[in-house]
Amino acid sequence: MAVLLETTLGDLVIDLYTEERPRACLNFLKLCKVKYYNYCLIYNVQRDFIIQTGDPMGTGRGGESIFCQLYGDQARFFEAEKVPRIKHKKKGTVSMVNNGNDQHGSQFLITTGENLDYLDGVHTVFGEVTEGMDVLKTINETFVDKDFIPYQDIRINHTVILDDPFEDPPGLSVPDRSPEPTKEQLDSGRIGADEEIDDLKGRSADEIEEVQAEKEAKTRAILLEMVGDLPDAEVKPPENVLFVCKLNPVTTDEDLEIIFSRFGPIKSCEVIRDWKTGESLCYAFIEFEKEEDCEKAYFKMDNVLIDDRRIHVDFSQSVAKIKWKGKGGRYTKDDFKEYEKQRDKPSKLALKEKVKPKQDAKYDLVLDEDIEESQTSQSHLAKKQKKKKHHHSEDEEDDKRTKKSKDSDRKHEGERCRERIKSEKKDRHRSRSRSPEREYTYSKQKDKYKDDFRIRDWDKKADRSRSPKKSKDKERSKYR
């Protein structure tokens, strides 16, 4: 219950699901037995998806089942077997191709990817590849065109039935040997399966070196494009620019321009100098307006003596002046100069976060007018705040002054009261020796009463002076 397919790239062994798909397996086995698949092209290769074959014409529109040979054209296709359901889960799954009406002929496909669920229920799975997965991998990686047709033919050369559980139906004609391919089968318009692709065959050593140098240059250009040093791998250096080297350090731009201007008008002449010291690096680039003038200078100025030095002249291979300007655009030094001028100008845009800082504010763009208005409003607010602070500070200073004066008055009054009390006590002490005891007790009680009265009066005055509400209100009313 297995079939061996001999292809131009190697052998594939397919195990068949004869119990699950008896009709599809019978059709496939008998087509292999009558050598129907010999020299069939693999005409559809979609990487990591499928490879498709089984059409003797190699177009994907032909093919017929084995029942067509037995029962005529009305049996060209047979009905699809959908039960039991088998899914396209793994690589190497073999399925009969649906013709669009849930019918099958001779075309089949082999999956090269995993979990292709969208093929389930459309194409009938009837087997799987058990040997030759490396061959399947090489077919999967072959080069194809936009229609997924390989540039070089891949064919099924021969089919060998390893095990066939089905008996041959009556009327089946089995050939004794494999038939020879027809011209129509072999003429695909592509590179033949047996042809060797050798571009260097029949060329001389110099031509081979040139081809290899071109390939190396292309690969380097592609790498430079990937890195970002070149805008395009196919970019070419300008043909109106000369490279002049072996110059004397004394030679200047003006000298070279005067010497080379006899061949034609010059756009620019630049001696390359060290960016730190400004000394000449002994080579220059000269750009002519016309390519013809550049060619004349190339042929006549090589090995010419300038300032006691034999110069060397060649066409420039530099593309340093060509840069990206968007997608596919290019710009030169003039564009750089304009960019530098615009960069020096003050921009009209600013971040709104700087103008009005907020906690959850987004960064929006604001014009200069909005910035000026916000600045003026902020200055007015700052002035008002300063005035308020000034008035407030003046009020505080006045309050402090009044407090100080009141405290000093209180201190003076307290000292005066204490002096009076002391003096009165002294007088009483003197009178004690003269007066009798009754007078002494009476005077003592009287003095106590007077002292208490004076102290109460002094405390009342102090309490009145401690409440500065009325004075503050009066002083604030002045500034209002």
Report on this structure.
The chain has 480 residues and is of the alpha+beta class. Helices cover 41% and strands 19% of the residues. The chain is built from 12 helices and 21 strands. The protein has a 9-stranded antiparallel sheet with strand order 3-11-1-2-10-7-9-5-4. Strands 13-14-12-17 form a 4-stranded antiparallel sheet, covered by helices on one side. The protein has a two-stranded antiparallel ribbon with strand order 6-8. Strand 15 (305-306) and strand 16 form a beta hairpin. Helix 10 (368-434) packs antiparallel against helix 11 (437-466) and helix 10 (368-434) runs antiparallel to helix 12. The longest helix has 67 residues, at 368-434. The termini are far apart. The model is unreliable at 324-329 and 358-368 (pLDDT under 50).
- Span between N and C termini? 113 Å
Spatial sequence of strands, sheet with the most strands: 3-11-1-2-10-7-9-5-4
- The total strand number stands at 21
Tally of separate helices = 12
Uncertain segments are 324-329, 358-368
Given the helix and strand composition, which structural class is it? alpha+beta
Strand content: 15-25%
Sheet bearing the most strands, described?
9 strands, antiparallel
Integer average pLDDT: 79
